[in-house]
Amino acid sequence: MSGRASFSSLSLWRERLFGTPFTGFVTVVLLLAIGWVAVPLIRWALIDATWRGTTRADCAAGGACWVFIRARFGQFMYGLYPVDQRWRVDIAGIAFVLGIAAVVLAPQRLRLKLGLAMLVVLPPLGIWLLSGGFGLRYVETREWGGLMLTLFISIYASLIAIPLGILFALGRQSELRVIRLISVIFIEFWRGVPIIAVIFLASLLLPLIMPGGIDIDRLARAVIGLGFVIAAYMAEAVRGGLQALPKGQREAATALGLTYWKATGLIVLPQALRISLPAMTNEFIALIKNTTLVLVVSILDLLGIAQASLADPNWVGMNMEAYAFSGAIYWLICFALSRWSRSLESRRRL
Amino acid sequence: MTIRTSVAAALLVAGASLAQAQQLAPSPTLDAVKARGNLECGVHLGLPGFSFANDKGEWSGLDVDYCKALAAAVLGDANKVKYTPTSVQQRWPILQSGQVDVLSRNSTITFSRNATLGLNFQGINFYEGQTFIVRKSANVKDAEGLDGASVCVAAGSTEEKNAADWFRERNLKVTITNFQKNDDAIAAYDAGRCDAYTAGVGALAGQRIKLKNPDEHMILTKPISNDPQGPVTRWGDERWQLIVRWVLNGTIAAEMLGVTSKNVDEMKANSKNSEVRRLLGAEGGFGEMMGLSNDWMYNAIKQVGNYGESYERNVGMGSPLKLERGQNQLWTKGGVLFTPPFQ
């Protein structure tokens, strides 16, 4: 039976790829093109690559030298975070993963409450673990860096962006004119300003115009700036979901005697959010990639730390390795996210 | 007491307090640095030999060493520096807005920057300039020797224009071969398609170790352009500017006077040269004149070393870059490095 199945699938593939002379021709050309790109890439990255060693001198010519990544792995992950304190980052990361897993795996009844509890507990816990105080050594944000910083910015900016985005999306639909106006102004302003300008202004202009003595951390300014921009994008994504809902949903809820907030929270938002989930995931993935822009304001994210360590004369010339490695990490994160959102979409309930 | 003597006494008191005031003009930056307990120093995001994160995750390099020397002079500890890596767009605003006390970031000193940005350049810690890399076997000593040769450049770059102009002015027949990108140009040079490749001294040092056989190539020490670089401060706070300038001068003077991190204790105790004694605080009270301890340069030299030590360690023979001193040699030894005397 299985032989027949594979035979039939084989003939199916032959049918698809070589059905007509033209499709056959296209198939061959594409295969050649893939081979033309992939073969040297695989040779460089895997076959001719150097894996073992400790210094640049151990690198073989022609292939990738992953020795560099190995030597600098700590910096790629944690930036310049003090080595003896890195366990704090690990704990924060584990706490976040466990927290999210607990919410996802919790029974339906508890999920909302648990989620809200995590939302209250985890973000301050993370900041405490990373920056210190209350018994932990203080680690300045300028020492943060690498993947940890990229994730930190993404998570905290989206903690600002998602609630704000939902609020402004609702505000834009509001029947109260003032609220509608405020929402439109917020959304259009932050959507209209380039992210790099926002980060730049937050980092350089704010200290100039702030009254003396008030000093907000540079990283915090960048996170808030990014959070506002993404909030505006999120608001538009959520608005799409709200508009896709039949009007009857809210009307029926109101007819049942539900207040505005109850109708919104129980009937409208759960459906609207599910519709806008793909668009919101899109914004979140864009956010992760946009975090690289903080490089212009002295924050050494994954890409920034790559640049700073590439300048070490002992490792000069490792650009391909550094960028391939950081690119792969970005891709992995974004790919995992889009798979996760797809599995969320396919589930019946959020 | 006659009126005359009392007037004279009053004048004397006034004169003394004026002198006191001149000695120690207010320095908000120095006060802030001391109160904070660390120096805020703006550096490059990543430039081989000048500013980079080493394997241990510490900032190092020639420009970083200046920050350390300044911190040692002001606070007595070279490690009391906080670094802000700056991008090219950000370097001036971050200094202007007061987020750093000093910028030590490969910034070329030019008239218009000095005149329009509200910034002062406090001396030169690296003479950068466009020059050429050639094969040692070609036996070329300077740029004039490139007559009849070919040079690989990136099309449309400043380097292309500079080189073409320079050769034309001197009626030298040099073939300029254009490539789309810098990387292509250097690869072509490495493959032997040209006799030379051109860029700044610092950049060439970084490029050379990427070549197949770095030892077969040499960088011509005499540049064809003039791009001096050094630490930068904001306008205002003259006393801070004085400190920034004279710490740099002090590291150069130390090399001039033969004071190194190794012999500094012995020199301070035994040297009979009064300039050495003034530099190291054994006499003259120079540190106090700026509101620092008299150990200021002793600490800087002891902890960071003199200019030559810093150069060799970061970009010179003690580093993978193996850049010769060239122009960045003392004026007494054929370079242009210079400091006014400690008198």
From TrEMBL, chain A:
The keyword Metal-binding does not apply. It holds the Pfam family BPD_transp_1. Keywords: Cell membrane, Membrane, Transmembrane, Transmembrane helix, Transport. Residues 147-341 form the ABC transmembrane type-1 domain. PROSITE patterns: ABC_TM1. It is a multi-pass membrane protein. It is found in: Cell inner membrane; Cell membrane. The chain crosses the membrane at residues 22-47, 87-107, 114-136, 148-171, 192-210, 222-242, 284-310, 322-340. InterPro entries: AA_ABC_transptr_permease_3TM, ArtM/GltK/GlnP/TcyL/YhdX-like, MetI-like, MetI-like_sf. Belongs to the binding-protein-dependent transport system permease family. HisMQ subfamily. NCBIfam families: HEQRo_perm_3TM. This is Amino acid ABC transporter permease.
From TrEMBL, chain B:
Pfam families: SBP_bac_3. Residues 38-267 form the Solute-binding protein family 3/N-terminal domain. CDD domains: PBP2_BztA (cd13692). It comes from the Bacteria. Keywords: Signal, Transport. Residues 1-21 form the signal peptide. Belongs to the bacterial solute-binding protein 3 family. This is Amino acid ABC transporter substrate-binding protein. It comes from Bosea minatitlanensis.
